[in-house]
Amino acid sequence: MQVLEIGIITHSVIIGISLGVSVHPETIKPLIVALSFHQMFEGMGLGSCITEAKFKGWKVATMLMLFSLTTPIGIAIGIGISNTYDENSHLALILQGIFNALSAGILIYMALVDLLAMDFMKSKVQKSFKLQFRAFISILLGLGSMSLLAKWA
After folding, report:
1. Which one in 45, 51, 71, 125 has a CA-CA gap of 20 to 30 Å to 90?
2. How far apart are CA 71 and CA 36, in angstroms?
3. Among residues of the chain, what percentage have pLDDT more than 70?
4. What span, in angstroms and rounded, lies between the C-alpha atoms of 75 and 22?
């Protein structure tokens, strides 16, 4: 569970930095829309994992506080470096590619290893072909929805 939280926190800081260094309104508006949906679903996933793990007290409060603060911290870092940041420089493009790859890799790993694998390995799912089929269709619909959102944003 801590790997999931660390991955989400790292990802949130990276996307916060991306938003913070954006200076053009045509870049910021789609980022805010995508970020809002993204953080909402990421928070729901994290919340369900925290609930399923049956964490109590300070541990839950700490995890929720870290999730809530990491994107604004990333935005503050991005705003702080935006004066010296040239988005068209070779270094900026390389760093942006590395950060995007890290963010995507972290989320894909967490989705496949920490979230989906646990859900698909439950005996209730393993025993029912109908439930497996519904789960796969749900995954495909979710992937399609996120792809549509990415295309739109």
Report:
1. 71
2. 11
3. 97
4. 10
Report the C-alpha gap between 7 and 106 in whole angstroms: 6
Of 19, 13, 62, the C-alpha closest to 42 is 13
Alpha-carbon span 90 to 123, nearest angstrom: 50
CA distances from 126 to 52, 106, 131 (A): 19, 27, 8
Question: Tens of pLDDT along 127-146?
Answer: 999 999 998 999 899 889 87
Q: Which helix (H) or strand (E) holds 14?
A: helix 2-21
HEC assignment per residue over 36-58: HHHHHHHHHHHHHHHHHHCCCHH
Contact 16, 74 (CB under 8 A): yes
Six-digit token string for 62: 């700490």
Would you state the pLDDT for residue 137? 94
The CA distances from residue 146 to 35, 104, 141, 142, in Å, are 12, 13, 9, 6
CB atoms within 10 A of CB 28: 14
